[in-house]
Amino acid sequence: MPPREGLRKRLRSSDYACQFLTHDSPVHRLRPHWKIAIGTLLSACAVGARTPAEFLLLLTVVLGYFFAARLTLYDLWRDSRLLVMQGAVVISAYSLLHGQSGLWPGVRTSVQIILFYLPGAVFLHTTKSRDLMEGLSRVIPYRLSFLLFVSLRFVPFFLREMEEIAAAQRLRGARLLPREMLDPRNWKDLYNCLLVPLMVRALKTADEVAKSAEARGFGLEKERTYFDAKAFHGETSASTLVINDRPLCLGPDSQCLDQISSKEKYENF
């Protein structure tokens, strides 16, 4: 790999916002319920912060948590750029309505929204839906956990869809560049060329997901099973030892496999 491509790959670890990344980081190794607790605490602090000192302290903690997951500055920009643009609109609106006295409330509201959102972005970057559903299915019905966390997993999907729709519509002449959105006359293109196609795509995707779940028998049983990777790998290793004709005892009755014929050992594999 050329040095420039290697540097670009390190700087751009994700292809789209909130993409799950298989890094080995302290945040990835946390159990899902701990990540939920940390994210809830940080988001609650974002809602309760009022002074610049509190925001500065909270920003330091949130960014430390974000980068502890081995995420990059590019990931931070991909995750928060829409909120940054929204913040510019909020600050402008506050300033127009309240004059100079509305500047700080606009900045405070914009920063609160970003700080409230970033812990959730870290959660999506570092957690598989299956891992979280497996833990929460012991507390809430698995249908509800499936609905909740599949919805969360669709957040990056629709962000990517929005980027693709916007790029295609700009090629057709729609005025959807960030600087063009500052002109209220272009908001008609935002609604007709971006929001309406995105809502149609969302409804179509929801219908496809529902039909796929129904075809797989989702909801027919009160409980559901989960794939245990550790158990699977353990059985695979045991089968490999059997192929090499090495004695191994498995199961609760400790049946020794060295007493099984070679043909049966091969069939067990």
Polypeptide structure, described:
This protein is an all-alpha fold and 269 residues long. The protein has helices at residues 3-11, 26-29, 32-48, 52-68, 73-98, 103-126, 129-136, 142-171, 187-215, 229-243, 262-268, and strands at residues 249-250, 255-256. A two-stranded antiparallel ribbon has the order 1-2. Helix 3 packs antiparallel against helix 6 and helix 5 (73-98) runs antiparallel to helix 6 (103-126). The longest helix has 30 residues, at 142-171. Residues 5-9 and 234-269 have low confidence and may be disordered.
Radius of gyration: 25 Å
How does the major sheet shape up?
Answer: 2 strands, antiparallel
Q: Please estimate the helix content.
A: 55-70%
Q: Ends: how far apart?
A: 39 Å
What structural keywords apply?
mainly alpha
Q: Briefly, what is this?
A:
Helices cover 69% and strands 1% of the residues. The protein has 269 residues and is mainly α.
List the helices and strands and how they pair.
Blueprint: H1 3-11, H2 26-29, H3 32-48, H4 52-68, H5 73-98, H6 103-126, H7 129-136, H8 142-171, H9 187-215, H10 229-243, E1 249-250, E2 255-256, H11 262-268
Antiparallel strand pairs: 1-2
